[in-house]
Amino acid sequence: MAEAAIRIEGFVKDYPVGIRGKRVRAIDGLSLEVGANQIYGLLGPNGSGKSTTIKLLLGLLRPSSGVGTIFGKPAGSLAARQALGYLPESPYFYRYLSGRELLRYFARVSGVARATREERVVAVLERVGLSAAADRRLSTYSKGMLQRIGLAQALVHDPQILILDEPTAGVDPEGTAAIAAIIRDLKERGKTILLSSHLLSQMEDLCDHIAIINRGRLLCEGAVEDLLQLKGAESYLVEGLDASGQAAVKAGISAAGGSLKQVTPARRGLEHLFSEAIQAEEGGAE
Amino acid sequence: MERVDRIWAVCALTFTEAVRQKFFYIVLFIGGGMLLGSGYFQQFDFGVDELKFVIDFSFGTLFFLGTILAITASTQLFYSEIENRTAHTLLAKPVRHFEFLLGKCLGVQLLLLLFVLLLCGLMSALLYLRELSLPVTGSESLVRYGELWLYGLIQWARFGVLCGACLLVGSIARSYLFTMMVSFLLMLVGQLQYIARESYAEIAFLPLRWLVQTLALLFPNLQVFNVGDQLGHAAATSLPFGVLIQILLYAGAYTLAYLGLAWWNFKRREL
Amino acid sequence: MNLLQTERPLLLKLQAGLLAVLVLSATALVLKPLEENSSRALQAGQVELRMDALDQSVGQGVVLGVMGGLRSLVADFAWLELNRKWEARDRAGLGAMIQLVTSIDPRPEFFWINSARMVGYDVPHWRIAAAGGYQQLSTAEQENIIAEQAEQALVLLERALRVHPQSPRLKLEVGQIYLNRLQDFESAAPWFLAASKEKNAPYFVARIYADLLLRLNRPAEAYAFLKTLYLELPDDPMAQATIVLERIRELEAELRIEGAAAFSPNP
After folding, report:
1. Measured between alpha carbons, how far is residue A222 from residues A42, A207, B260 in Å?
2. Which end of chain A is more exposed for a tag (fewer CB within 10 A), N or C?
3. ipTM of the predicted structure?
4. Residues in chain A closer than 8 A to C8 (CB atoms)
5. Mean of pLDDT over chain A
6. pTM for this predicted structure
């Protein structure tokens, strides 16, 4: 069995409230596995624990219990971080640096060899489409450009895994499409991508696998195709019906004079699945 | 080697950030202006004693503005990384917490070194020009120019202690303002606590004496850096070289102690 | 360990606090010899600060500045303020500022000497002018005022000499006041002699001492002093050895010392 790129086993994260040790549970026994070369979407409403899970994987937070590994190495360890590229939510970078300087800095701290550093910086700038703006200060960048330079810094040391926290939040449709294209391209290059987002239509098109979490608990998880398929239902693609014929569809397609072209399994949207899962969880919790 | 490169990268970035901000230039401009303003003493016709006034004033400027710059820059350059969450991005890379802290500290120290060198250079030039225009008797200079730089070195070491203290406070603080205020308070206590040390022997109530003694141990005695009276002016009693080395060692040890504690707290801090 | 850290915040804070206390105390104890050595060396070059002089008349900013390590600078600014009082001929203000400046920083001789000159030379003019001017006051009254102020200047210099017991400039200043303000040659002479014996004393001080001996009708003593002085003078044009030799020759003429008994500059 191939080693999982990311494995989380029973993550629990409690935050103390006040000095007497009262706790608020942010992550409640979360377990999941991200296979190599997957685009894995972590979905959940605001405050569901997506960013906390990511921070636990990066070692920025310590789990109250549970274990996380990155290619078998403990989450947060130097070796694990070496294999990761991370784009934080609403990234804020040093405004006085140019895009090129920022990438040089992150390449250097990530251990990219001096001999290849410049080449690497140029390549990544090219990939995120910021070559023309590379020497402008970040303070002049738009939100979309900041998101792309954030993606570039995550990529600069060519990590095997990318963790992207809301990579398209606040970005216009054109920018979103560009980021989605970069992510697909990364998958083609063999990278594993874990991303969190609340933009469900984008995730539906982009991800192979998803997990929906709420209140720190995993609600459902699996391949997008499996999760979105409605069991025991079919959809029909009908051609040539007039207005009156439509009313008779239920009585029989053949009798109405139409010709049956295709029968495919019916599919619901990811948005629908998400709402249903959250509602079920919240109904159950009440 | 990679570790050194990472520390140096953080240091260089910190320095770049500092020198691209207006605050550094404002402090530098005020410092330069104050030194140039020491020409005001000419009005009083002090004769050769004017040089003592210029030296005192220059040392005071370096001490005062350097202290403000050390605390403000250390707090701003370190705590803003936590507040703006740029530290998240950096610490998600293969960078250790102590590398980040040490890089920050070195970056601030590099900035302060530049500040000290510029001010010492300017004060030396001004004193030299003034001395040339004064009716000096005897062949010996009234200013020991080398000691002006030595004063700068000792103050730079003191700024290192302040930087370490700021990083320690910042490593546990939850706000920028808190870090700044507590750091200034620490500086003030360090500057004045020698008075407490001198007077605790007179406290008759033993538990109170012990408490004061223990508290006194928690703060460095920043008075040991007040060497200005013994440097620079030819009439001043020179400070032995060995003492200067001891003062530098004292500063180095406190800076390391503060950095060590800051690292311990910062490593455990959840971002 | 993780549980301890994340679920017991009070314990974590205590742990951090205790570690800080331990590390800082250990640092302070280890560095104690260094600190004491440095403090001793610094204090050796400094005069003890008289806090009682600061308590009342000055603001907290001055006290803080002085205690915080800006002693010289605060004294310098107090000196500028003293000059303002002097310009305004504010006698009471001048006295208070002299007290303050010399208490904050008694190290610069400059403060003492110039204060003594203000008290001894300038204030008598102010007092005489305030009392109606030189035309109105009798000579005796004027001399009385001058003597009173000279006395105050001498008291100030006496305090200064406790701080700088080997200062030729201060001793010379005492001599000058006896000489110029009180015309008391007898009292002035020993101070000029004492000043001339100190290291870095100006060469002219010894010559003035010899002059004073002459004014006191002690030419033989002056002659003996100048002979010794001449032999001890360094090879420095500023020492004006030829003037000293001329004076010796003049005294030889006056005392009728001739031939082999006369002074030989190259023994």
Report:
1. 11, 11, 46
2. N
3. 0.85
4. 16, 21
5. 85
6. 0.82
